[in-house]
Amino acid sequence: MNPTTAPSLRTPTIESRLPRVGTTIFTVMSALATERGAVNLGQGFPDFDCDPRLVEAVAEAMRHGLNQYPPMAGVPVLREAVAGKVAALYGHRYDPGTEITITAGATQAILSAILAVVHPGDEVIVLDPCYDSYEPNIELAGGITVHVPLTPGTFRPDFERIAASLSPRTRAMIVNTPHNPSATVWSEADMTRLAELLRPTDVILISDEVYEHMVFDGASHQSAARFPELAERSIVISSFGKTYHVTGWKVGYAAAPAALTAEFRKVHQFNVFTVNTPMQHGLATYMANAAHHLGLPAFYQRKRDLFRAGLAKTRLQMLPSQGTYFQCVDYSAVTDRPEEDFCRWLTIEKGVAAIPLSAFYADGYEQRIARFCFAKKDETLALALERLAQL
Ligand SMILES: Cc1ncc(COP(=O)(O)O)c(C=O)c1O
Asked: Potential cystine with 285: which of 57, 248, 290, 389 (Cβ 3.0-4.6 Å)?
């Protein structure tokens, strides 16, 4: 038969690189919240604006013509500001020239770190429940995700299980403290134990510290950068979006020893190449005043306490919230519906959106727990609490 010469409007089918990925629960719940006019305490972002001085600093950079490509690793003033902040808070001095890279949010930093470190067939340990980008990122690198649960009930790291999961194939481990979604914070003893556990291995620690400035009740954030042994094997990742209430700007950074940074930058260079220039200059100017990040624990602790005082009057049982801007609740006194079902019901029938904790587990583990985000205006929290009091 002659090959057909008629044009074909058929899109070739491709084999999915991420066959198990669908629409995330965050998108689903946010859409449902909008559709139903519910108070959205689901997705983790502030509903209040950032400091106008930060916007002005960015506008000023634009007016000054800082609108072209910056250096691949980020503008030097911002890398220096990050190095200064990390040294002041955690006592580890990263070289801004060779050890700090400005990224398109923490999300891109995590992907670049994984692509730089993980080869096909390598194992990566993640602690469930965990942020939803880790596993698809590992999959894109051809790696194998090894899920180790945090201790049910307390969400503390279970070092026996972590130790048992280490194998000669373990290439990396991802730790997130302060932790989304459980709002737990790793202690100095936890980090010391982690350092001991990894000492005989060549495992790279990918330390997701996007909530580093949201630790409450006088506790301090235990960055991997504080622990010399861990710092030598870690890619420490943070996010300006979380710290300065500008999640939509998508600017973050990765700090790592020069040898790791060199590999990280190879991926970064051919992934995004650079991150938008005026935001970087604006952030550098704004960061010069340390009060802007040092004031964050008090700012969010007040909101947490306000939210918890209201929750205490409901039938929801609060879990501790030691850090982040999340508050988890056990709703088993209200209903025994599964978590996703409960969150849909809460959004549709009661007008408050939340996220089921099962969404953060690879196996959808159910505990009758939902996560609220309290990075909201006081009046938003008050409205949500009024509705939750009727449960
Ligand atoms: C644990 C964790 N890591 C990373 C991110 C992503 O941060 P960014 O918005 O800077 O990409 C988030 C955002 O929700 C998060 O909760």
From this structure: 57
